[in-house]
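Inputs:
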Amino acid sequence: MLITNILSYEFVQRALITGVLIAAACSILGVFLVLRRLSLIGDGLAHVTFGSVAIVLLIGFSPLYVTLAALPLVVVSSIAILHLTRSRRIHGDAAIGIVSSIGIALGVIMASLSGGYNADLLSYLFGNILTATQTELILSFIIFTAVILFVVFFYRDLFTVTFDEELAKSMGVKTNRVNVILMILTAAAVVSAMKIAGIMLVSALLILPPVAALQFSLSFKSTIIASFIFSVISVIGGMLFSFTFNLPTGGTIVIFNAVFLVIVLFAKKMLRTQR
Amino acid sequence: MPSTIISTQNLTYSYNSTRAISDISFKLEKGDYLGIVGPNGSGKSTLVKNILGILTPLSGSIYLFGQPQNEFRQWEKIGYLPQKLSALNTHFPGSVSEITAMGLKKRKAHEIKNALDMMGIAHLASRLIGELSYGEQQRVMLARALVSQPDLLIFDEPTTALDPETRDIFYSLTEKLNRTNKTTIILVTHDIGIIGKYARRLLYMDKKVLFTGTFEEFCASSEMTGFFGSGSQHIICHQHNVLETIN
């Protein structure tokens, strides 16, 4: 089937726009998370999303509103990770692990109570962007806009906190406010991204584009822009490739991101060898 | 501007159940050059972090430029150089100019250039911080602390990674800023020779303040001889050119 034919379907257009908006939001947030060594927070929140979706499905929410209904618990969990990390007695990776395992455990129990893993829950585990609803499109637009506004209005604070949080505090930066907003937006992006890549692969959207962008040794702003460009190309390329060859969309998008990273790493190595 | 730059009353801080500093009270007036000394683990850096709001005291009060610290907003008046960055990521995509500009509310190219020139690193302006040596990174952090021409400079072990030549340039610069611009300076260091040479007042602490006063008072204090030993006290006082005064 021709690409133009595929793109003429309204549900494909909706899926493409939703995918681009959410992947772009993830790639921008990912720059701050990767540099602060919080990359795995995406994985942890994805696991909580699994538990949250299982609860929402058990309660009996309409599939149209599952993403929206799953959001509050994931946001609360992201704040819990932040507070556990700040307690000084628990390292960041352990805090993520604690919240993540509670999320999975909740999901398993809820899935069992609802009579096992039904088709709905499995579709969230592996993602299915083509089923993106109008609500999810609007939600992804709101999240993308919120991320852009956050970066624009808090750029200096974000730069300073990402460089060194203690130094930022000494400069009067309200680090707690910056961290809470970053966590809430990350939680919202992760919940929305489960439709694109699935709960199992959602952290790839937060990690792979920033890591590829960081290989170029660009300035801070340019790194954010490069990460954004990588993610958008990967989503569009991955979706069209998956439609053409009838492959799972989420997995194909992640593989596109990974291929980008491998090419960048290889090119960097070649350049070093030539010097 | 109020003449009292910092005032602390009964400042106490604990890490979990371990008391780090206890009942610290002192005042710093405009134009002072205060050296803070004490053994390892004596709470010097903890004191500085409480003053700067990085840590929240368990009890006591802190006033900065006449305002309670929690109401203080003019942080560009303070330049701070930490003992070490928590965890400088070598992949951090920030150029030397961008890092230096962190000290300014609004980016001003000529102020950034002046600060980089002062530290002799203007030629590194477009390089990424992660590509530099530790000594060069430290000079960038010094430039960042100086860029807003602050009224108060706080240096916590500032020259550990610097070569002797750059170290001398740095201390001469702090002395010049203190004498000509009346910039108030707090210097935390283990190097008692440096304290003796540049600071004009001294605070000796070991979780609590054991001595605070001028060098003349320090050199005349038999209690301090007990802490430092007569040899070390002699070196400090000699550096400060007050040996003849106490003889």
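Residues 124 and 177 of chain A are 31 Å apart (CA to CA). Flag for discussion at group meeting.
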